Hints:
By secondary structure, chain A is of the alpha+beta class. Chain A has eleven helices and five strands; from the N terminus they run αββααβααββαααααα.
Amino acid sequence: MHRILERMQSDLLDALGLAITVHDKRDDEQPSVLAALGVGADFADAQLSGTGGPVPDALAYQVPVLSLDLWTDDRWPELTLATMRERAPEHESTWEQVHGAAAVPGVWADDATVVVCCTLSQPASASTVASLITYEQLVSAALITTAAENASAIADIITVLQSRGAIEQAKGALMGLVRCDAEHAWKMLRRASQEFNVKLRELAVALVEHISGAPAEQPDTGTPITPDERTREAARLMWAALSEAPLAQ
Amino acid sequence: MTNSQFRMSAAEAEQPPVVIATGDIDLANVNEFQDVLTSAAADSDAITVDLSDVTYCDSAAVRALFAVAATTKLGLIVPATGTIMTLLTISGLDRVATVTTRD
């Protein structure tokens, strides 16, 4: 996916952000950002969590959506420069350069849709849309191939994205405890979720809540993840085992 | 190029060629629609597409219109109210094409 985004970026020279958002309605999941470059992820997340914008509209109506000037576009009164500044102040100078945007939807499986979106420093044109249409076909083809190879892979990716915050926190905690890198922490989480036969995202939430004694960070969109007792027990056991023998891993 | 559903009238003095579409435009015939648009745009830097008598059109038609607008100045004639106008507004196609409404 990232390679496709990089090719898009070399094609769309005015792009400040690019994002691929997927929505798999079979699992009753919320749309989530699958891959992004530049301010793409922040921009897509904002649109999906309430401001509205080209991405949710393209998903909802299944038509390409173009905007000449996002911040003044009357279709999304809540999507403004001030909102984005507040949500992602680290990109302040980029938000000030934003003008146009375009989003193109596609369907890659029954009830599973994808939107390719770009944010530009220039007004978007019909050519922007035409070029995104080409890339959407590429993205959809890649998704179909991945889905065919491993039916659960895509669902896994999406559910993982849903709980990105908690998983990042859990990984961070493991890295601190076991003194390993992110890759290793990720593998430990995966292995534990398989051994205890609990969902990885629920385990991550349970782990974070076990360590901190407070609710884990969760996205505003979607249903919050509430781990069941078995998952909480798994998290306790995992943490205890690692705390006792931090070098065993 | 002519067929029953998508007709093209040649460019007249100072006027761009006009593609007149009727009936439903969907996945089944969007390639035909696209072909007519492409050939109309081939010899002209502007075309007009008359959608007044289109009864249904969806994403496929919007994509075809964006594609032709990428290379040609596009004019659209559409009913003032109804789903086609809504589709143009949602997609923002009305911002890159010149839209004329017809009651």
